[in-house]
Amino acid sequence: MTDRVIVAFDFDGTITTSDSFRAFMLDAAGATRFALAALRCLPWLIGIAPGWSQRGPTKARFLLAALGAVRREKLEAAAQRFAQTRLLDLLRPEMLVRIREHQALGHEVVLVSASPSVYLRQWAPTVGIETVLASELEWRDGVYTGHLAGRNCWGPEKVARLRAWWGEKAPATLYAYGDSRGDREMAQLANYAWIRGEAPLPPLLPTGGFGATA
């Protein structure tokens, strides 16, 4: 039986204090273009909470409205700048400590987020996270199309991404850290789950510790 321990962290609101996508778009587009894009996308943005519009397509639509058909290298340069500057102000120090504690025990830490991977993949290696499962932007000939490539990595899709990633090497123990409705399914899959504001942090077990196969 495998003794693999996987730790799945949501990003926004869990590792960060606020929404990183909003901060990234403000940084990449500037306040004026951000505001104009918000006005153009207002019907879809206000429809997210009551379920009238879908989160993923709305996020993709907003990025297109703010930045246009941006080239991949330009957006990746903006993502790298954001990951090295503005994003650092959003991080929760106590959650960075928790990540390091898991890593010190030999656990595999993976980031599972609905935010675009374009800046998460810039940030993750700086804290020793090798795997990022996130929403992917669609590109055609190196230009952003205004759509996501695949599903928005939220809710049930987080579980689907995790299962596809580990394949036949399912963990003996799965930890999951989240903060919202979009993390519920991932929390239900885990042996040890934590949703911000609902319970104390779970106990830390060494690799080879006690837990059922997820």
Automatic annotation (TrEMBL):
UniProt KW Phosphoprotein keyword: no
Gene Ontology cellular component annotations, sorted alphabetically: cytoplasm
InterPro entries recorded: HAD-like_SerB, HAD-like_sf, HAD_hydro_SerB1, HAD_sf
Transmembrane segments: none
Single GO term (MF): phosphatidylglycerophosphatase activity
Gene Ontology BP annotations: L-serine biosynthetic process
CDD domains: HAD_PGPPase (cd02612)
SUPFAM superfamilies: HAD-like
Keywords: Hydrolase
UniProt enzyme class: hydrolase
Pfam families: HAD
Gene3D superfamilies, per database record: HAD superfamily/HAD-like (3.40.50.1000), SG protein - dephosphorylation function (1.20.1440.100)
The enzyme's E.C. designation: 3.1.3.27
This protein's name: Phosphatidylglycerophosphatase C
Lineage: Bacteria, Pseudomonadati, Pseudomonadota, Betaproteobacteria, Burkholderiales
